[in-house]
Amino acid sequence: MKKRLLSILLAAIMLLSVLPAAAADTLFSTEEQLLELFDQQKAAQAEEFEFTCEQDLFARLMEDNGRLLHVLLRKGGIASARVQYGEESCLVKLSETQYTDAPWAECATEEEACLAIRRLLRDGNESFALLCAPELAKALAETGDLRSYAAQAGVEGLSLTYYTNGIIQVQDPVPFAAPWAPVENTAQFDAAVESFALLEADEFYIIFSPALFETLLEDEEQRTILHASSMLDRFTYTSEALYGVLHYTRASYLTYPSLVCRSLEELQEAISHLGARETPSFRFYLADQGLRDLLMDTPLGYLHHDEAEAGLTYEVQISHNSNYVFYTNAKYIRHAELLGSAEEAEDYLAAQARAGAEQASLYCTPELYTELAGEEGSYPGDPNCLDGIYAMIDRAGVSDYDVSINRSSGAIRVQIHGCYPAVEILRAVDTETVRELPSQQQDCLAAALDLAEHCRNEDPMETLESIRQALAEIELLPEGGDAEADSAVGALLQKKASLRGLADAFYLVGSLAGLELRYPSLPAAYQPGEGENETGLLLPPGLWLRADEAWVFVTLDLSEGTEA
Q1: pTM given for the model
Q2: Strands 49-53 vs 27-28: parallel, antiparallel or unpaired
Q3: Which of 34, 115, 438, 471 has its CA 20 to 30 A from that of 12?
Q4: Which of these, 195, 185, 277, 283, lies nearest to 233 by C-alpha position?
Q5: What is the rounded CA–CA span in Å between residue 146 and residue 72?
């Protein structure tokens, strides 16, 4: 009898252990209590259980085809279940229950759904649920917006299951087969392309924000500007089925900056900026029709000033088409500057020569370039083409040089191989290297210093007159004799010199006496065929003097100077 009672008790205990976790007399009144119940059942992996609710809670659970009940089940980790219920008893019974650890997100707006799906996909979830109002869930599922939002997380395809109760089940995401990047503005697009360039990717995806993509669809010029400002060189793209996704293929990349300019001021600022960084190659996209019209006929004449300030030398290749200006293989030099007159050009070149520069790059305005190099159509072999340049170089005291010109950039480059002796001596004075001069040049300097001291006067014209009288008695020799005769050495030490030697001596003494002088150019000073004396010498010898802000040609035969 005792054994029988014990068996009955054990059976009762076992029966109680498999009964539903919610006792018949438990009455649930809040959603929180139900969620706690679902958590307990999930922990026990109960396949079947039931619960009873207060009437108000039961009514809310059953509204809209049981929407709230299904939402609470999903929040409680229940993926699916067979639901039976009794309206009078407010009893709910679940069977065939399946549980899940997949996350979920409750979304009240489309923006929240966008952020949620991007976040959950980027976290690497293979499956999750979005809990929305039925109307929102229907709109998201039917318009395909969720797939576009998923693309912003790098997902090309996925499985969507939409339920009328507002639950959207997302699973099986398929990532893009090539690199991808989401972008919301031009700066992010540029950064994305730069990263693809580092990867040397010839294929990639760009997922645009809806607002940016709408702009690009409506405005072709904006699409062009977007690409022009990036490192993209050549490419093709197609629009994917996913809204806002462009698939780029056969992409190649620039190795130099590409900037968009909408005005001449922006273009000038860009040149100065890139010049300060000594960027060897770059391009500009002209995003304004007025700017294109301004630059296309003479595309770079307006930019010389900024090129010069940026230090761009003659050594740069410049080309353009209807929308772009290209600078390639540029070299920079800090002493390049814009020159507007022949006088400025001479002063600049003379200063560079006296400073010992091996090269001087002169940036000229279009007007000055034409004055020096002739009209367009002339060429270096044309005897009239470079006369103005030769004269300028000669007056600056440069005796041995190579010169090249670039009409498209307005640049004149002078390679300085040697200067007239007086210039070399004065450079040694400026740099305090007189002791390094040859002994004859040191003696010549000493004689010139004595004569300059003797001739110096507060009135430049009086100084000029004294030097001219002192040098006018020197014996003139034919041109092309020995080197000493063509320099101040012959004139000051041997009292014999050619016209070139007289000019060199005048330049040396006058400069030491405080005068601002220039050598005579052949066309201006010598006038071939006129003024020859019986020995065949061209008269009168002399130099150019700056007096009262004007240049005057000063002769050595005591004749009147003439204003330049």
Answers
A1: 0.59
A2: parallel
A3: 34
A4: 283
A5: 23
